[in-house]
Write a structure and sequence with these properties.
heterodimer; A: about 400 residues; alpha/beta; 14 helices; about 40% helix; B: about 35% helix; binds thiamine diphosphate; binds iron/sulfur cluster
Chain lengths: ~400, ~300
């Protein structure tokens, strides 16, 4: 174990190296570009034995990863924003093909108008593709979550996006504890594919399926489209205990446990809780300390795992709180922030134990979110006397035109 | 030395009972391609009539490993197979990417151009039935002018076919060839050769489609031959930059017995609304292209 000062991107590349990825599909987009650049250096210097495919687009990057994974190689790519949107078709294909790809997403706002700076619209817009989504608070979590992601993905055969905020983490240097290669090898054994391409027993992968189950040549009944899709959902429904188990094992080995899908800060006695994701979780923690100095008992619940959605953990934690401020950097246009909707849905049906919940949209396109802004959000949330007083849609927290 | 019919491998890699239309030119070609490439082939294919040939889960008539992928992603999928196999040290597999004209000339061009520029180690074959047949005979950029399709239903297509083979030649592939399902031996020889070359190999395969072109199912082989005999399709290969006419086209070049394109055009319902001007332009374009090939071949 050594402590290094690294940017988020350097951390993600180093994590991929520690995971001994075998095929890397590389396509640049700000703010992710440094990840493939670093990896190309590792490969060209001979420090990492991998095929480095300099693809011509993100659509192809995911296509390369899917097929490389299908023949049994541990596959890696990274993207952001428009690149992620351009991959959309392939994202569904990867999850449907059940290939355990791990992909860092350096969260960035989507055009138009153009921005290269951070929000989470890109990955939130891909939440329904069947991928798992992990979000990182800081650079240490980037390293840890990439390693954990491969472990979980290869156990469940579901791909994982490891999302972290563009620039705020991708370009910011922080101390990161880097485990030894041997320790990572012991935690993450080589990838053994679920299907083996054997010329003696050829298979047709991802063929056309019918709607209803159909008997095969062996007389067995094989699932139709819906049955196959249900199996993906069933896997995701039962994924949280696996993530917790591996997160605990990670903690035992490396000293940082990811058993809890939620990062919690001073939640026990809080009257107001920030509910958020990504680096906002760290910023909200700062705001908490300020608020507590002023006599307001604030806390933070920041989701590390967004898909599968940790509904039960959220219920257990949030239903006992008085107020929630759901603060997020993405919006489902025409309604409110996606996290706000999901938090409310998780608390639905708890017989009157729903805390007063206000949604806030912050930080789009890199707009700064200061601890004092968060303090103001907390105060506003505390001022709502009843559910009825909370505005129908998420509140845009920005004092500008 | 061209392979003799009697010397073709007996082993079949597609079983009877594919789901293509009766009389389709695709299974004729595919059967011989797989004979040439053998059991260690991994095919990757997008949405197209070949997907239909491959059948529906859980059954397939195809006896080699196959990976289906998105419409525009064939060459990317093949790049992933090639990279994955290399990373695992499995060097003796043949990666075969096979897509229709729509999945190649139109949506697939980006991934194919990228992979060819990287000199990715695979064989890419575009089987060209000159329209989006799988979705019901819509025009593609491979559709010749004068053809009726379901998206050019009243006025036949105006624009000429995209010269995609030239686009591919401009990528300097390790091997480039054209062939046609009506000449299985020409096809077999070209795939046998391509198999032993490293780098990107591109083969254009003309496939007559009775359903889309409008001819009786028993005439598939004849229509493909007419395409070659009239010079609409020219059989050739480019290896190490050296151009060579092959098979029937070489024979035509030597005997100067090329037939008028009308002999080909009048066999198909898709050309029923072709104007005399279009016919004339078609003949002119075919002749010019042919002269160019003769000059390249030094004949
Ligand atoms: C992104 C996307 N757009 C459209 C389609 C629908 N689609 C499926 S097959 C096909 C046409 C295939 O045509 P071609 O590649 O010429 O092959 P053919 O069917 O003629 O064999 C289309 C448009 C698709 N699968 N994916
Ligand atoms: S539509 Fe044409 S190419 Fe497709 S299966 Fe039928 S005959 Fe063959």
């Amino acid at each position: 174990m050594a402590t290094k000062i690294l940017t988020g991107n350097q951390t993600a590349a180093l994590a991929a190296k520690l995971c001994r990825v075998q095929v890397i599909a590389a396509y640049p987009i700000t703010p992710q570009s440094k990840i493939p650049e670093e990896l190309s250096e590792y490969v060209e210097r001979g420090e990492l034995q991998a095929e480095f495919v300099r693809v011509e687009s993100e659509h192809s990057a995911m296509g390369v990863c899917i097929s490389a994974s299908l023949v049994g190689a541990r596959a890696f790519t990274a993207t952001a924003a428009n690149g992620l949107a351009y991959m959309h078709e392939q994202l569904h294909w990867a999850a449907g093909a059940r290939v355990p790809i791990v992909m860092p997403v350096t969260n960035r706002g989507l055009g138009a108008p153009w921005t290269i700076l951070n929000d989470m619209q890109d990955s939130i817009a891909q939440r329904d593709t069947g991928w798992m989504q992990f979000y990182c608070l800081n650079n240490q979590e980037i390293l840890d979550q990439v390693i954990l992601a491969y472990k979980v993905a290869e156990r469940l055969l579901v791909p994982v996006m490891v999302c972290f905020d563009g620039f705020r983490l991708s370009h910011t240097m922080m101390p990161v504890e880097v485990p030894d290669q041997e320790a990572v090898d012991a935690f993450l054994p080589p990838f053994t594919p679920a299907y083996h391409l054997d010329p003696e027993r050829p298979v047709n992968i991802n063929p056309v399926v019918l709607t209803d189950p159909i008997p095969g040549a062996d007389g067995r009944l094989y699932p139709g489209y819906m049955g196959i899709r249900r199996r993906l959902q069933a896997t995701l429904e039962s994924a949280l205990p696996v993530i917790a188990e591996e997160g605990r094992a990670f903690g035992e080995r490396f000293g940082r446990s990811y058993e809890d899908p939620i990062f919690r800060y001073r939640t026990e006695d809080a009257d107001i809780l920030f509910v958020t994701m990504g680096s906002l979780g760290s910023e909200a923690s700062e705001a908490c300390d300020v608020l507590r100095d002023q006599g307001i008992k604030a806390g933070v619940a920041s989701l590390r795992v967004f898909r599968p959605f940790p509904k039960r953990a959220i219920r257990d934690l949030l239903a006992t709180q008085a107020r929630l401020a759901v603060v997020e950097k993405a919006i489902s246009y025409g309604l409110e922030g996606a996290l706000a909707t999901e938090i409310k849905a998780a608390l639905y049906g708890l017989n009157g134990r729903q805390p007063i919940t206000a949604g806030y949209i912050v930080g789009l396109g890199g707009k700064d979110v200061k601890p004092l802004d968060l303090c103001e959000i907390a105060r506003q949330t505390l001022s709502f006397g009843s559910h009825e007083e909370v505005p129908e849609h998420s509140i845009w927290f920005s004092n500008e035109i | 030395m061209p392979t003799a019919l009697m010397d073709l491998p007996e082993k079949e890699y597609i079983l009877p009972g594919t789901r293509t239309c009766a009389g389709c030119g695709l299974p004729i070609a595919y059967r011989h391609i797989l004979k040439a490439l053998g059991p260690k082939t991994i095919v990757t294919l997008p949405a197209c009539c070949l997907t239909i040939l491959h059948g529906m889960y859980p059954k397939t008539p195809v006896l080699v490993n196959a990976v289906n992928n998105v419409f525009g992603g064939t060459a990317a999928s093949a790049s992933g197979l090639a990279a994955g196999l290399k990373a695992l040290g499995k060097e003796d597999y043949v990666v075969l990417a096979m897509a229709g004209d729509g999945g190649t000339f139109d949506m697939g061009i980006q991934a194919l151009s990228g992979a060819a520029e990287r000199q990715t180690n695979f064989i890419y074959v575009c089987y060209d039935n000159e329209a989006y047949m799988n979705t019901g005979v819509q025009r593609s950029s491979a559709t010749p002018s004068g053809a009726i399709t379901t998206t050019t239903p009243v006025h036949p297509k105006e624009q000429p076919k995209k010269d995609f083979i030239q686009i591919m030649e401009a990528h300097h592939p390790a091997y480039l060839a054209t062939t046609c399902s009506s000449y299985p031996m020409d096809l077999y020889d070209k795939f046998s050769k391509a198999r032993h070359i490293q780098g990107t190999r591109f083969i254009h395969l003309a496939v007559p489609c009775p359903a889309g072109w409008g001819f009786p199912t028993r005439e598939t082989v004849k229509i493909g031959r007419l395409a070659v005999e009239t010079g609409v399709i020219v059989l050739y290969e480019v290896e190490d930059g050296i151009f060579r006419l092959t098979g029937k086209s070489l024979n035509l070049a030597k005997t100067r017995r090329k037939r008028p394109v009308e002999d080909y055009v009048k066999t198909q319902a898709r050309f029923r609304k072709m104007t005399p001007e279009q016919m004339e332009a078609f003949q002119k374009a075919v002749d010019e292209r042919w002269e160019g090939f003769l000059a390249r071949a030094g004949i």
